[in-house]
Amino acid sequence: MELILTIHGYLVALIFLITVxxxxxxxxxxxxxxxxxxxxxxxxLALGLPLLLGSIHYFFSTTVSLYIKYGLFFLTSFGxxxxxxxxFKKNRKNATEESKIFMxxxxxxKPLPLTKAxxxxxxxxxxxxxxxxxxxxxxxxxxxxxxxxxQKVRDEEVKIDDKLEDLKEKEDELGKRFEDLEKRKExxxxxxxxxxxxxxxxxxxxxxxxxxxxxxEKEKDDLELIKIKTDKDKDKVKKKLHNLLLFEEELExxxxxxxxxxxxxxxxxxxxxxxxxxxxxxxxxxxxxxxxKNKLDKEKxxxxxxxxxxxxxxxxxKDDKVWTExxxxxxxxxxxxxxxxxxxxxxxxxxxxxxxxxxxxxxGGFENLKTSLNKLEDELATAKSENKLKDEExxxxxxxxxxx
Amino acid sequence: xxxIVLFILIFFSFVFVTLSIxxxxxxxxxxxxxxxxxxxxxxIGMLFLAIFLLSKVVEYLLRFFEIDISFYASLVELVxxxxxVVCFLVSMILMREL
Lengths: 404, 98
Hints:
The complex is a heterodimer.
Chain A: H1 2-29, H2 38-46, H3 49-55, H4 62-108, H5 116-318, H6 325-403
Chain B: H1 2-26, H2 36-64, H3 70-96
Helix pairs in contact in B: 1-2, 2-3
């Protein structure tokens, strides 16, 4: 089997060499280039190379030749696969794009019914009309350009006309100026005569002015007389003013007194407020006393009731022999305590009554003070109103003085 | 160890060769019509090569289970390689006639 395989190997190698020779020849003739991927043919043939090398295993050990054989197989097959895969991917992308374009064209294109009229119509629609529109557009463009050029020429003509008009206007202006100069020349000749005439008129006016000067002097004398009179009036007014100033000073003094009185009134008002507060305090104290008194009255009544009960009990117990002496003594002690308490309460009640009387007296005094303060307040109010009236009088006098 | 490495090499060679056949077959229609015959014979030759590689894969796979089919594998190799080379030669002859 080994021998057969080696012979077979050599045969395969020989045939493979012949194949390679043919491949080289085809490549030289350019037949290989007809393939879309000529490299793939070369790679396919390269797959035979490991077989060729594997068959000559007399040069290497069997394992090495096996590694060489299958390693080369692996490399060439990998190369072939990667090349084909990349090519396939590229083609597929192109094919999908082409198919998309084809599908879109297929959707766009509608089958045309093949009547002559319709063919003509379609021709008109798709070929002749676009051409005609193009021609029309070009025509319109050229017309527009022509119009624009014509417009430019017209604009230039208008500009030239404007310039001509300007020149004419300038010419007219120069003519007018020339005429004006001539007129002025004539006027200067005339004005000499006017000056002579004016001189005689001025002389006449001078005579008139001399007459009016005499009138003015007379008026001056009259004015001096009036001045003397006014000076006399002025003196009188000065005297009056002096009297007014004296009166004003008096008023100011009165005003000062009133201000003092106002201050006093303010202090009185403060005092009144204080007294009011004190009255309030006493009132609250009085309320407390009254409450305490009520409490004491209640206690007193309770004590009275208790004493009566004790008296009753004592009367019952007095003749009772069974009642022990101790209990009797207790009741006696209690009776004594109650009487002591009663005395104390009486003293306290008297004290409270005294205090209450004092407070009421104080309250009466404060109320008297309050009434007197109210009177003072009324007086102050009248004084204030009078003060205001006097202030107004002073203001009026001052304003009169300023006017004078 | 040697067997494993060889097995991996042969297995991947087989995978790549079969995938290459698939790609070439799918793109066959894009080739020039005059080359149709030579492409077909090349593909058949590659198919024989794939069969040979498959037999080798099976042989090495079975070796792991201590089953020896090297004789049959050599027979397959003999037949497949001869047919492959013949196919390649025919393909080149067809190309030469263009």
